[in-house]
Amino acid sequence: MQTTEKTQPKLLKLKKRLSEINDLEAAASLLYWDQATYMPPGGAAARGRQLATLQKIAHSKFTDPAMGELLEGLRPYEETLPYFSDEASLIRCTRKNYHRAVQVPAEFMGEFSEHRTQTYSVWVKARATNDFAAVRPYLEKTLDLSREMADFFPGYEHIADPLIDFADYGMKVSILRRLFSQLREELVPIVEAITAQSPTDDNCLHQRYPEEQQLDLTLKVIKQMGYDFERGRQDQTHHPFMINFSTGDVRITTRVDQDDLSQALFSSIHEMGHGLYEQGIRRDLEGTPLACGTSSGVHESQSRLWENIVGRSRGFWKFFYPQVQSYFPSQLGNVSLDAFYQAINKVQRSVIRMDADEVTYNLHVMIRFDLELMMLEGRLQVRDLPEAWNERYREDLGVVPQNDSDGVLQDVHWYTGQIGGMFQCYTLGNLMSAQFFEAAVTEQPEIIPKIEQGNFSTLHNWLKDNIYQHGCKYTAAELIKSVTGTALRIDPFIRYIRQKYGQLYML
Amino acid sequence: MQTTEKTQPKLLKLKKRLSEINDLEAAASLLYWDQATYMPPGGAAARGRQLATLQKIAHSKFTDPAMGELLEGLRPYEETLPYFSDEASLIRCTRKNYHRAVQVPAEFMGEFSEHRTQTYSVWVKARATNDFAAVRPYLEKTLDLSREMADFFPGYEHIADPLIDFADYGMKVSILRRLFSQLREELVPIVEAITAQSPTDDNCLHQRYPEEQQLDLTLKVIKQMGYDFERGRQDQTHHPFMINFSTGDVRITTRVDQDDLSQALFSSIHEMGHGLYEQGIRRDLEGTPLACGTSSGVHESQSRLWENIVGRSRGFWKFFYPQVQSYFPSQLGNVSLDAFYQAINKVQRSVIRMDADEVTYNLHVMIRFDLELMMLEGRLQVRDLPEAWNERYREDLGVVPQNDSDGVLQDVHWYTGQIGGMFQCYTLGNLMSAQFFEAAVTEQPEIIPKIEQGNFSTLHNWLKDNIYQHGCKYTAAELIKSVTGTALRIDPFIRYIRQKYGQLYML
């Protein structure tokens, strides 16, 4: 980042403080990564304490009144700078985070954080034993705390708005309700038309695929797609995630199911999408709050763009499928490209969000979004949540979970976070992914034929130039507007779904 | 640890502060572990910064004047407690560390730390290219800084004493010189008698041993020896080490040479010895400065006890050798137990300390110890060090390194630490290992036959009860006296060497 540190000692001071906080947060992230990958069980108790300590120190350094004074002191200078200059963006973004951080008392943060840790461990058992009652009192307290949290940000239109704002800055219930209802209207008839047909045969994916070969394959695929192993690595975890400790060290994890080829493959590509975003951020933003993805929705747009729009496209498999066949000749030697392509894009009414196809996925998200709002508004009690959940699945997807483990207990979000603001990013990500991809292809139509040749750099470079490099200098709304020319809208996604699934299911 | 926190709020405050500092140090250790094991190359720059930040914060929290006030305020309470009670020991040990930490200005620490980092990277290249001249100016500065460091602790008998004290509290040049010269007098004739014979054939160790099987074997061996994998793990690094993040998470690393069976095997057992010490510390000391080994020498005594006294004994291999043969039938099927036992205990005049046998090893250490002292005393210039090094090897070991890479550049210590206090712990460890083992076997003679049956728990329990559990509650001198009944002395080691090598070489 270009600086005028000599003339602006306050800016230098700000950056020094931010860099120190960033180092503490990076260390906390590594503690978390290690916990999920290699830590022996005996390390758990101390690790929880160590993580809490680092987070507490980072938080107290960030909310130090001296930080507020520095930011205030920089206001006159900021006003002389172009709005999107690096320095103005740094000050603006830091100020946004600072105000958010000081709004919530440290004591409350501590209480909530401890409650979340407890709730998570109760949930792990409750899900394994199908025992919603065990976790219910915890979830009730989570709901209370989520409401309290929102109330630290008075003046909201809807009580969920401040909670949504944490993950997707600038988003609100009123905007989301409109987007989601338009989307729902378009999707429901497509789902009906597809599921009226006889189900796609995806047995080819459910054979024995040895772990080692699957891992080897995922590494080969994501390397070719552009993931930089000099600045990253892939390990195995129970729940795949992306995490970074600097722009030079952006790691992903994956999960292998030896009886399902699609698990490791698509989770690797998904996390790689998150990883490409973080690897693509300008190196000179490192150590500042600008060096991260700009919102959960935009982050998810990149994982979904690479996983679905690219990774489940016919062109992609035209290139990669012969290699997959040579990895697994006995399993796939007699399966045609088209049969494989259909299998990985099978649309069905199902109960598990994580395994849902592109067409039904957003319906799963909307169920959660609506239930979150109802609970926050006081229109739904936690004790009635399982029934409401199942009822919505019956109505919206025509299927009912066999038990709460596959129903209301399936997602970790409410049990490790808050109620409110936890799910909208998935649908936002899907919508954005299509809108970004359409803009990319409009500008550079060769992207599509290049993918068929296993060349991903045209697309990758376009994304780096237009999205990744900026980190969070632009908000999601600013980015979408500047990159695609319009605000976020549903039609690129609907066009994408209509075209792809129209062909697949001959609608 | 039992506490009287209610009546002693100052003690509670002290523990809270210490626990926070401990968490920061543990996080820094994990950053280091990751750097040495899994970090992609791109992470290096930021990692250096992150490590420095954590160390700086931990140091500034520990040297906070409030810490000194708390320690002073606890003095009257401490005087009411038994000297070796947990609480008195905690206060005493913290005070010792505190005075050491505040004695050195933070600015000097920062300068020295940065200089060490630079020197290390210059040394890596210099060793690879056999270019002592490249690293010479750095080493000259290290010598200056080492002297300055010592001068922060005025009143010493010898300028190296404060530096030795960091690693081996209570040790001094005057004591070490006496011990080392006695030891030397005993060892030289033994080395001469052995090396007058025709050299042992150790070709059986230098065959092709595939990495995967070697790693598998090391895991099996150290598991049987008592290393707890629920509270530890083994990974690969260039230079093996032990590191811990809590008493519940004590990790070791090893290095495999596919053309030398002894590398991974003995480095695993060596690091396991360090690991057993840390795993054996009382769990309720965790988070306090008492939860660590009491000195470098005592730590080394445990790695050497398990590696050499146990791991290179005939009884040990009577049990394990058939298993090793079944791992490597083509390499060792026709090699007898005795031939293998002789090979792993081959005594020879050599130039590399790390590969030296038990008999000559201490002669290597003494060369370094003497040269350190001469440099600190101003009797040897850094520019004359390579010549002095080679001359001492000629005199003491009858061999001369072919080049500086195998000579004065071979050990990392001076290039990443200071000059002074870096090597005595190895010989102290060897002496202590024999003294401790002799005490153990005198008390429980069944230890020896049990080892032959692959049962290590009698020895392990004795070490836990007598040494490990206490952490650093007792100083090295206190521990040796209380466990063995006398001060540190050379005769148990000499007895051990005479007996073992007398048999091996029929002296």
From TrEMBL, chains A, B:
Residues annotated for Zn(2+) binding in this entry: 270, 274, 300
Organism domain of life: Bacteria
Membrane-spanning intervals of the chain: none
Signal peptide residue numbers: none
Keyword Protease applies: yes
UniProt xrefs under InterPro entries: Peptidase_M32_Taq
Pfam families: Peptidase_M32
GO BP annotations, alphabetical order: proteolysis
Necessary cofactors: Zn(2+)
Cofactor note as given: Binds 1 zinc ion per subunit.
GO molecular function, one term: metallocarboxypeptidase activity
EC identifiers of the protein: 3.4.17.19
Major enzyme class: hydrolase
Annotated catalysed reactions: Release of a C-terminal amino acid with broad specificity, except for -Pro
Alphabetized UniProt keyword annotations: Carboxypeptidase, Hydrolase, Metal-binding, Metalloprotease, Protease, Zinc
Function description: Broad specificity carboxypetidase that releases amino acids sequentially from the C-terminus, including neutral, aromatic, polar and basic residues.
Sequence similarity: Belongs to the peptidase M32 family.
PANTHER family given in the database record: CARBOXYPEPTIDASE 1, METAL-DEPENDENT CARBOXYPEPTIDASE
Name of the protein described by the UniProt record: Metal-dependent carboxypeptidase
Provenance organism: Moorena producens 3L
